[in-house]
Amino acid sequence: MILLLLYGSAKADCYMHNPRGSNNKLHEQSNTVTNNQRLFDSQNNNDAGYQAGDACIPNCLNNNNQYQITYPGAGEGVMQYYEGSYLYVEWTNQHGSMISRLQNQFVLDYMCDDGIYSDDIRDGVTTNTIPTTPTANLNTYGQHENQLWYRLCQTRQRNKGLFTADQNLQGQTAQFTRQNAAGTRRGLECPEERDYYPYWHPTPWRDIWVCTSMPTMCQYYKDNSQNVVDRGNCTIPDYNNQKECVYNGGQWNFAGKWNMPPPECTICPATRNNHNGNAKGSLNAPSYMWKIPEGIHKDGAKCILRIRYNITTNDLQPDTWNIFSDKNGANSPVKTNPVNDFVGLGANVSGPIRLNINTAQFGRTFEDRSHVFQIRKRPSGLNCGLSTSCNIYNLNVRGRRGNIVQVYPAVEYDFVPPDLTVTKSDYLHIQWTGADSNDQGNDGNGKQGTDRSNLVIMPDLGKNFPTSFNPLTVSNTYAHFTNNIAKIAELAFLNQTGCDPTDTNTQSNTFCPLLNRAPAYYNFGLIQPENTGTFKLLNTRNNAFSNREIKTTLTVTNDVATIAGSSAIAVVGMSVLSAAGFLLFRKFKKPTGEEYKTVKLKEAESDGESVAGDDEKPKTLVDKYPFLAPLVEWYAWNQQRVLFWVFFGCCQAGSWMYGYFMNPPSDKYPAPYFPIAKGFGKMLDFNLCFILVPVMRNFLSFLRTTPAADKLPLDDNIEIHKWTAYTIILASIGHIGAHFADFVWFENYMAQPFYWNALANIAGPTGFVVTGMMLLMYSSAFLQRKIYKVFGRRYDGYRTFLSIHKLWIPVYVILWFHGSQFWQFSVFPLMFMAIEKYIQSRRTKVDVKVIEAKMTGKDVLNVKMQLLKGRKKFRYKAGQYLFLCCPDINETEYHPFTITSAPEDPYFSCHIRCRQDMDWTYRLRQVTGFAPENKDDINLGSKTTVMSEDNLEQESNLLLRVDGPYGSASEEVFDYDTVILVGAGIGVTPFISILKSISLKIKSGVQENSIKIYFYWICRDQAEFDSFKDFFDEIINIKELQNNLELNMYVTGEMNLKNVRQAAYNQFSGRPNWNRIFKEKAVKHKGTSIGVFLCGPAPIAAQLAAASKQHSTKRSKTLHKGDDTGRTVFKFHKENF
Fold this sequence. Notes:
single chain, seven-stranded mixed β-sheet, alpha/beta
């Protein structure tokens, strides 16, 4: 068995400050303990410790200021802690901790009066040590462990395997140890159990916490604690282990384990050597937050808390913690006061010298114990809000009367815990105790020799005046953690009665301003905070500037459960609003189109009993509740968009709730609208980062190649970008408005000018600058792709939009200075955007040469291109698009165009509409020589020679650059066996590429002729019709396509019938009747999925979306089969740039 010593050093005292450590003191009116052997062996300084608490009203002193133990309430100031509550345990230790020149350990444990060795715990009324023989008035003595415990210690053989150095132990029982060789009795404590941990016999102590300078020992401590391990004694006292006991005819009786969790084990807090002060890196003394066990003790159980401080010197290395009796006597590595020439330079030269070594203390345990306290059952009926249980935090006062010199090594008054943080669902148990038996010569305020405390709120820790709560003169919203005026008054004045307002004698029992008529012990019960914020607490009785300060802060926040619950409620509400908003969006706004996905519902098993005569049970939710069919149908068609907008709404609600609840009014920001501003601020943080995602073209193209394409409305990326911008505007209004309301509040209540809060900081000016930039960006989004004339100057809409939108870069830079946490939200989106821009920059450097440029009809320019020699082929898929740049117009301006060539062609081409009212495209027409230059135009560069197919080897002066390709909805044509392609005007271009690709693949035998294509082209007039007529003539003549391609041309404008040229495809005048067309296709391709693809304006998209939904088989007609195998479904897709 590994036996671990608990060591200390000669001056390594350990003092408990909260709860009040006794150091064996009781009620002596002195700073020095009367009997340091009264209850336990502390080995501490006799000036330490705190007297037991009193509850006399007004005090326990007679007219001569002598303490009277017989007065009602004397010695009855016993602290009460609720089970499950958090108690702040605080101590100081003199010799240091976690420093290289020693090894140390702290053990925190407690004992209650419900054990076989601790059945009667009391502080007592006399300072004499309790006798071990029957005596009259035995209950007047203080007692922790009981008589049975000490008798076992007196008779049980000590552990003779322990290291005792060269000490001569004067007995063979457990009351004799290396540290107590004479076996001196202190109370009824057993020295062997005191000095060693974990102890190998049953003890009355339950372990709470162990800390060590050797973390590798933690598992050993946990595994060998009596909390989890049964311990026993031998019926023959001569044997102290089970093996020897049984071998010699004894019986080993187990006392039982505590059946509690093992003690927590950590590394110890670091403290300086020879210093009773704060822990390293902290403004506070070493501490531990103890959660008092629940469901173990009876209500009102009397308990005491013990802390042991154990250190040892490194002279016992190499294995300090595993040194045994074989190193005793002459073999001891240390001897008492050795004399020698340790320096080794010779007698009378460098020695001999004597070392001050007391082997009884060259490894030493110090100890302190609290006075008796009670553990009370947790009250029922606590209001825990949305939490399953409430936390209870004990807020107390530690210290005693006197200045720092008079009380040392105890401490002066202060609140504990310092700077406590709780939530609104938690409870504060505010109570404190003190004594009326302090030394009469100690400094202090109020009645001499007495401890008193109170609690008021103050506006600023740097001031010393409380906050007024007079409802007739002041309005202090959020100024106190409770709104109970009676409780506010009680905390301040302690419900004193019998006061004499005319009395000016501060030592009089009727002088209430210094709380002279209040008891030293006061229990305010449980108080649940009602307001959030950071509250400054002040004790007016003991706070005296330049002498001592007793202030602290209490921060109240909304609890996580309430935040989560409120967020959940908000999310549900936002989800409903999002769904309702989507319905309105679909009803009143022209839809943009998307791929509608069918959603398979889970079968709902019937939970009813079978009924005789029923042939079939309902199998689905719709079968059981037919009124749900329209909702199911609606959701099936709109699943992608609904799920996304619900997610989007949840993000808005969650970010707002997070900002609101995590930023309650505080000392720095006391204004009531601050949380609202932060809520909208967090919405801005989220949306200003999310708005980048829908415009990451490469990222979206990648998503189209993944399963995410089936879950996300990728075709709605521009609409999502716009709605995110609208959300940013609304959040900005809320954010700025709430801050302005705060500035007005500061001006009214704090006398701070409005302009000071709005401008005299970095957040104000940067906020105004960002707002201005964002308004410019928002306004530019309404510009169209055309030339604007302003004050005689010509501006093209797209270039203006593009230039202004580049303000997003300085906006993000400024936001990093505006909001301290914005970088946390933006770092990853900006990282992705940087990657996106890097990819774009690499791709946009691809120079191409124009091999042919020609007009193919009215205002349609066909440009064929190839990469420059030495570069790989431009790789793309049919239906994709690219961005085109002409440096002669603008080196940074790119515009999207659908690729109209097929991937199998030796070139790639675009068909570009270039009317005279258009900006960039008409300039491209001018550059290529197909339009006269106007003297009013901006300088477009030198005249360009355009190449034709007859002179490909010549060098062209026209330089173009491409960025792409990028994915689009049209790519998914190849996922269907039947498709309906609809092009409106120039919107025919993506389908030209697709039809070309299919025809070339069929010709070359790469693809079977399996896809059925219905193509509908809607154009305004004959001229537009003629732009692509030659191409369609070529396509329709491909033999392999004739049975699988149906071409339908619609001219919607005025046309001269004499000019109509007959073709091998269907030609119509007017607009398509989509209901007729879809009805025919639904019958012809029953039970299949038909892809519907559009490149055209929103009105046609609305018609196609409605027709797709109307002519798809209703889910209610097929769900009873358990799947959708019998459905005819039109799935709609729309191009979006």
